[in-house]
């Protein structure tokens, strides 16, 4: 997978991409990140990428030319792909980002993430370049970079070969539709705080049931909205009604 990011602040991504799983994923050739400063594409003689809004009003608007040209350039390199890259605009008006969307995007060969600043984007960028608009939450950030990091991170960890233990992506909170059960490690007794006996029992079937119930309990207590979307088994229902 190739993740291309168009931003005016490429340095913001250096920290994320040079640590931990995202660093290892690049070393294992599971992913490449291509961070492009779209100011490099501007034809404006003062290097500007924004301008005043037609019709007046406050704030500046990102002009179409540098974004169109940067995306065209990135797409040239994508000629050999089976499918054209997804071109994603980060903005507060976008579709709310979820684990399901991360899973969908992880099937692509190339993602192009566009990070805006200023008051907004020229609408022609939306109309003619963009395949998806994504928001990472109902709040307004100063720019799309943090959203692009969220997507790059959540998609990369789903790519085969990226996590050491493939299982961990499968049992994650959200990919099962439930929040994850509690984890414990050694010591079994930490200053009088004991690990639940069931986990020390070696009884795999019982442990599996306990974990399922803990996930259900946690989701019920914290995120009833998630439970409503699930087809729970009869055993799950019984446990929740107890
Ligand atoms: N840019 C500004 N706010 C944003 C948000 N909530 N999600 C994605 N991009 C943004």
UniProtKB/TrEMBL annotation:
Broad EC category: transferase
GO molecular function (one): tRNA (guanine(37)-N1)-methyltransferase activity
Record keywords, A-Z: Cytoplasm, Methyltransferase, S-adenosyl-L-methionine, Transferase, tRNA processing
The enzyme's E.C. designation: 2.1.1.228
Signal peptide extent: none
Domain tRNA methyltransferase TRMD/TRM10-type: from-to ranges: 1-229
Binding site for S-adenosyl-L-methionine: 116, 136-141
One Pfam family here: tRNA_m1G_MT
Name of the protein this chain belongs to: tRNA (guanine-N(1)-)-methyltransferase
Organism name: Salipaludibacillus aurantiacus
């Amino acid at each position: 997978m190739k993740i291309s990011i168009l931003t005016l602040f490429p340095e913001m991504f250096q920290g994320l991409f040079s640590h931990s799983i995202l660093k290892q994923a690049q070393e294992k050739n599971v992913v490449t990140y291509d961070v492009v400063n779209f100011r490099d594409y501007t034809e404006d003689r003062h290097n500007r990428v924004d301008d005043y809004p037609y019709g007046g009003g406050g704030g500046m608007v990102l002009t179409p030319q540098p974004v169109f040209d940067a995306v065209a350039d990135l797409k040239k390199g994508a000629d050999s792909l089976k499918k054209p890259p997804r071109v994603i605009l980060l903005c507060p008006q976008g579709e709310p980002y979820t684990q399901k969307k991360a899973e969908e995007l992880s099937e692509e060969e190339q993602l192009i993430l566009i990070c805006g600043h200023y008051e907004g984007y020229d609408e022609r960028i939306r109309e003619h370049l963009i395949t998806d608009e994504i928001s990472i939450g109902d709040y307004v950030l100063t720019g799309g970079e943090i959203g692009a990091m969220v997507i790059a991170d959540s998609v990369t960890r789903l790519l085969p070969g990226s996590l050491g233990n493939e299982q961990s992506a499968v049992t994650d909170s959200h990919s099962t539709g439930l929040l994850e059960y509690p984890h414990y490690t050694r010591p079994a007794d930490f200053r009088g705080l004991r690990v639940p006996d069931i986990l020390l029992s070696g009884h795999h079937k019982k442990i599996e049931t306990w974990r399922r119930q803990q996930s259900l309990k946690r989701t019920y207590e914290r995120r009833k909205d998630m439970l409503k979307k699930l087809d729970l088994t009869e055993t799950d229902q019984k446990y929740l009604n107890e």
